[in-house]
Amino acid sequence: MDIYSRIKEKSKEGKKQLAVLVDPDKHEISDFLPLAKKLSAFPIDYFLIGGSLLSKDLLDECLQAFKEVSDIPLIIFPGGVMQINSKADALLFLSLISGRNAELLIGKQVESVPYILQAKIEPISTGYILVDGGSMTTAQYISNTLPIPANKPSIAALTAKAGEMIGMKMIYLDAGSGATNSVSKEMVAKVRAITKLPLMVGGGIRSAKVAKEKFDAGADLIVIGTAIENDPSFLNEIADIFQ
Prior knowledge:
Order of helices and strands: HEHEHEEHEHHEHEHEHH
Oligomer: single chain
Number of domains: 1
Radius of gyration: 16 Å
Strand order of the largest sheet: 1-2-3-4-5-6-7-8
CATH topology: TIM Barrel
Strand content: 15-25%
Number of strands: 8
Protein backbone atom coordinates (compact mmCIF):
# COMPACT_ATOMS: atom_id res chain seq x y z
CA MET A 1 0.00 0.00 0.00
CA ASP A 2 1.38 3.42 -0.93
CA ILE A 3 1.73 6.09 1.75
CA TYR A 4 -1.24 8.20 0.68
CA SER A 5 -3.52 5.15 0.59
CA ARG A 6 -2.37 4.29 4.10
CA ILE A 7 -3.14 7.81 5.34
CA LYS A 8 -6.53 7.81 3.62
CA GLU A 9 -7.49 4.35 4.87
CA LYS A 10 -6.65 5.19 8.47
CA SER A 11 -8.56 8.47 8.14
CA LYS A 12 -11.66 6.60 6.94
CA GLU A 13 -11.36 4.23 9.87
CA GLY A 14 -11.13 7.16 12.28
CA LYS A 15 -7.66 6.17 13.47
CA LYS A 16 -5.55 8.96 14.93
CA GLN A 17 -2.22 9.41 13.16
CA LEU A 18 0.99 11.06 14.30
CA ALA A 19 3.81 12.47 12.20
CA VAL A 20 7.03 13.70 13.77
CA LEU A 21 8.81 16.47 11.89
CA VAL A 22 12.61 16.31 11.96
CA ASP A 23 14.44 19.35 10.61
CA PRO A 24 17.99 18.30 9.62
CA ASP A 25 19.17 21.90 10.06
CA LYS A 26 18.57 21.68 13.80
CA HIS A 27 20.94 18.75 14.28
CA GLU A 28 24.44 17.53 13.58
CA ILE A 29 25.18 14.35 11.62
CA SER A 30 26.09 12.54 14.84
CA ASP A 31 22.60 13.25 16.23
CA PHE A 32 20.61 11.45 13.55
CA LEU A 33 21.18 7.79 14.41
CA PRO A 34 20.51 8.06 18.18
CA LEU A 35 17.53 10.34 17.49
CA ALA A 36 16.08 7.84 15.01
CA LYS A 37 16.50 4.98 17.50
CA LYS A 38 14.89 6.97 20.31
CA LEU A 39 11.91 8.18 18.27
CA SER A 40 11.26 4.82 16.63
CA ALA A 41 10.33 3.37 20.02
CA PHE A 42 7.16 5.48 20.07
CA PRO A 43 3.83 4.94 18.22
CA ILE A 44 4.69 7.22 15.31
CA ASP A 45 3.01 6.69 11.93
CA TYR A 46 5.31 8.81 9.75
CA PHE A 47 8.47 10.84 9.90
CA LEU A 48 8.40 14.15 8.05
CA ILE A 49 11.96 15.08 7.11
CA GLY A 50 12.80 18.60 5.96
CA GLY A 51 12.22 22.27 6.61
CA SER A 52 11.75 25.67 5.06
CA LEU A 53 15.48 26.30 4.82
CA LEU A 54 18.12 23.54 4.81
CA SER A 55 21.37 25.47 4.99
CA LYS A 56 23.47 22.53 6.23
CA ASP A 57 22.55 20.19 3.36
CA LEU A 58 22.16 17.18 5.68
CA LEU A 59 18.93 15.80 4.21
CA ASP A 60 20.60 12.72 2.74
CA GLU A 61 22.44 11.84 5.96
CA CYS A 62 19.28 12.32 7.99
CA LEU A 63 17.19 10.06 5.73
CA GLN A 64 19.92 7.42 5.70
CA ALA A 65 20.10 7.28 9.50
CA PHE A 66 16.35 6.92 9.93
CA LYS A 67 16.17 4.34 7.17
CA GLU A 68 18.83 2.21 8.85
CA VAL A 69 16.99 1.78 12.15
CA SER A 70 13.29 2.26 11.42
CA ASP A 71 10.51 0.89 9.21
CA ILE A 72 8.38 3.99 9.82
CA PRO A 73 7.66 5.67 6.45
CA LEU A 74 9.84 8.66 5.60
CA ILE A 75 8.05 11.57 3.96
CA ILE A 76 9.97 14.61 2.74
CA PHE A 77 8.52 17.95 3.85
CA PRO A 78 10.22 20.07 1.19
CA GLY A 79 11.19 23.69 1.47
CA GLY A 80 12.60 23.80 -2.04
CA VAL A 81 13.17 21.95 -5.31
CA MET A 82 16.48 20.47 -4.21
CA GLN A 83 14.97 18.78 -1.15
CA ILE A 84 14.10 15.63 -3.08
CA ASN A 85 15.84 12.35 -2.29
CA SER A 86 15.34 8.73 -3.35
CA LYS A 87 15.94 7.47 0.19
CA ALA A 88 12.49 8.75 1.20
CA ASP A 89 9.27 6.80 0.67
CA ALA A 90 7.17 9.79 -0.33
CA LEU A 91 7.13 13.56 -0.63
CA LEU A 92 4.47 16.09 0.28
CA PHE A 93 3.90 17.71 -3.12
CA LEU A 94 2.94 21.02 -1.56
CA SER A 95 1.03 23.85 -3.16
CA LEU A 96 0.83 26.91 -0.91
CA ILE A 97 -2.85 27.62 -1.51
CA SER A 98 -3.15 30.13 1.33
CA GLY A 99 -0.78 32.51 -0.45
CA ARG A 100 -0.73 34.31 -3.77
CA ASN A 101 2.85 33.59 -4.71
CA ALA A 102 2.57 31.86 -8.11
CA GLU A 103 6.01 30.29 -7.72
CA LEU A 104 4.74 28.29 -4.74
CA LEU A 105 1.37 27.52 -6.30
CA ILE A 106 2.74 25.90 -9.47
CA GLY A 107 6.16 27.29 -10.45
CA LYS A 108 8.44 25.32 -8.12
CA GLN A 109 6.25 22.27 -8.56
CA VAL A 110 6.95 22.22 -12.30
CA GLU A 111 10.69 22.55 -11.63
CA SER A 112 10.60 19.64 -9.19
CA VAL A 113 8.95 17.09 -11.51
CA PRO A 114 12.17 15.79 -13.17
CA TYR A 115 13.76 15.27 -9.74
CA ILE A 116 10.70 13.44 -8.38
CA LEU A 117 10.56 11.17 -11.43
CA GLN A 118 14.26 10.43 -11.13
CA ALA A 119 14.00 9.70 -7.40
CA LYS A 120 10.97 7.44 -8.00
CA ILE A 121 9.25 8.47 -4.80
CA GLU A 122 5.54 8.93 -4.24
CA PRO A 123 4.28 12.54 -4.53
CA ILE A 124 1.30 13.30 -2.30
CA SER A 125 -0.59 16.32 -3.64
CA THR A 126 -1.18 18.52 -0.59
CA GLY A 127 -2.96 21.85 -0.22
CA TYR A 128 -0.67 23.69 2.21
CA ILE A 129 -2.37 26.39 4.28
CA LEU A 130 -0.26 28.65 6.49
CA VAL A 131 -2.13 29.97 9.53
CA ASP A 132 -1.03 32.86 11.74
CA GLY A 133 0.49 31.27 14.84
CA GLY A 134 1.23 34.52 16.63
CA SER A 135 4.76 35.05 15.35
CA MET A 136 6.64 35.27 12.06
CA THR A 137 7.74 31.79 10.96
CA THR A 138 10.49 30.75 8.57
CA ALA A 139 7.87 29.35 6.18
CA GLN A 140 6.06 32.69 6.09
CA TYR A 141 9.28 34.64 5.56
CA ILE A 142 10.71 32.36 2.87
CA SER A 143 7.39 32.05 1.00
CA ASN A 144 6.79 35.81 1.05
CA THR A 145 3.10 35.23 1.75
CA LEU A 146 0.65 36.25 4.43
CA PRO A 147 -0.81 33.48 6.60
CA ILE A 148 -4.55 33.20 7.09
CA PRO A 149 -5.56 35.16 10.23
CA ALA A 150 -6.14 32.87 13.20
CA ASN A 151 -9.59 34.37 13.79
CA LYS A 152 -10.80 33.71 10.23
CA PRO A 153 -11.68 30.00 10.18
CA SER A 154 -14.15 30.47 7.32
CA ILE A 155 -11.35 31.69 5.02
CA ALA A 156 -9.32 28.58 5.85
CA ALA A 157 -12.34 26.38 5.20
CA LEU A 158 -13.07 27.91 1.79
CA THR A 159 -9.39 27.73 0.88
CA ALA A 160 -9.31 24.04 1.78
CA LYS A 161 -12.44 23.37 -0.26
CA ALA A 162 -10.94 25.20 -3.23
CA GLY A 163 -7.88 22.97 -2.90
CA GLU A 164 -10.11 19.90 -2.93
CA MET A 165 -11.97 21.16 -6.01
CA ILE A 166 -8.67 21.78 -7.80
CA GLY A 167 -7.74 18.16 -7.13
CA MET A 168 -5.57 18.16 -4.02
CA LYS A 169 -5.51 14.84 -2.14
CA MET A 170 -4.81 16.20 1.33
CA ILE A 171 -4.98 19.44 3.35
CA TYR A 172 -2.27 20.62 5.74
CA LEU A 173 -3.13 23.41 8.21
CA ASP A 174 0.18 24.66 9.60
CA ALA A 175 0.86 27.40 12.13
CA GLY A 176 4.57 26.93 11.41
CA SER A 177 7.53 25.50 13.27
CA GLY A 178 7.88 27.04 16.72
CA ALA A 179 4.53 28.86 16.47
CA THR A 180 3.38 30.68 19.59
CA ASN A 181 -0.18 29.43 19.07
CA SER A 182 -1.50 26.32 17.37
CA VAL A 183 -4.29 26.25 14.78
CA SER A 184 -7.56 26.81 16.68
CA LYS A 185 -10.04 23.99 17.17
CA GLU A 186 -12.65 26.24 15.53
CA MET A 187 -10.59 26.45 12.35
CA VAL A 188 -9.90 22.72 12.32
CA ALA A 189 -13.62 22.02 12.78
CA LYS A 190 -14.60 24.43 9.98
CA VAL A 191 -12.19 22.81 7.56
CA ARG A 192 -13.29 19.32 8.63
CA ALA A 193 -16.94 20.21 8.03
CA ILE A 194 -16.38 21.30 4.43
CA THR A 195 -13.99 18.63 3.12
CA LYS A 196 -13.54 14.89 3.50
CA LEU A 197 -9.88 14.97 2.45
CA PRO A 198 -7.34 13.71 5.01
CA LEU A 199 -6.55 16.68 7.25
CA MET A 200 -3.11 17.32 8.73
CA VAL A 201 -2.61 19.91 11.48
CA GLY A 202 0.74 21.13 12.79
CA GLY A 203 2.57 23.96 14.52
CA GLY A 204 2.52 24.93 18.18
CA ILE A 205 1.30 21.56 19.52
CA ARG A 206 3.13 21.25 22.83
CA SER A 207 0.85 19.22 25.09
CA ALA A 208 -1.31 16.11 25.05
CA LYS A 209 -4.32 18.31 25.73
CA VAL A 210 -3.72 20.41 22.62
CA ALA A 211 -3.02 17.29 20.52
CA LYS A 212 -6.31 15.70 21.62
CA GLU A 213 -8.10 18.99 20.92
CA LYS A 214 -7.01 18.85 17.27
CA PHE A 215 -8.19 15.26 16.88
CA ASP A 216 -11.51 15.99 18.57
CA ALA A 217 -12.03 18.93 16.19
CA GLY A 218 -11.52 16.69 13.15
CA ALA A 219 -7.80 16.37 12.39
CA ASP A 220 -6.77 13.00 10.98
CA LEU A 221 -3.07 13.50 11.47
CA ILE A 222 -1.13 15.85 13.71
CA VAL A 223 2.44 16.96 13.14
CA ILE A 224 4.75 17.61 16.07
CA GLY A 225 8.25 18.97 15.61
CA THR A 226 9.79 21.60 17.88
CA ALA A 227 8.32 20.18 21.10
CA ILE A 228 9.92 16.80 20.42
CA GLU A 229 13.21 18.28 19.27
CA ASN A 230 13.38 20.14 22.58
CA ASP A 231 12.29 17.12 24.62
CA PRO A 232 11.75 13.70 22.96
CA SER A 233 10.10 12.43 26.17
CA PHE A 234 7.13 14.65 25.22
CA LEU A 235 5.98 11.68 23.17
CA ASN A 236 5.30 9.82 26.44
CA GLU A 237 2.65 12.43 27.25
CA ILE A 238 0.67 11.85 24.10
CA ALA A 239 1.20 8.08 23.70
CA ASP A 240 -2.11 7.30 25.43
CA ILE A 241 -4.02 9.17 22.74
CA PHE A 242 -2.92 6.59 20.17
CA GLN A 243 -3.74 3.47 22.19
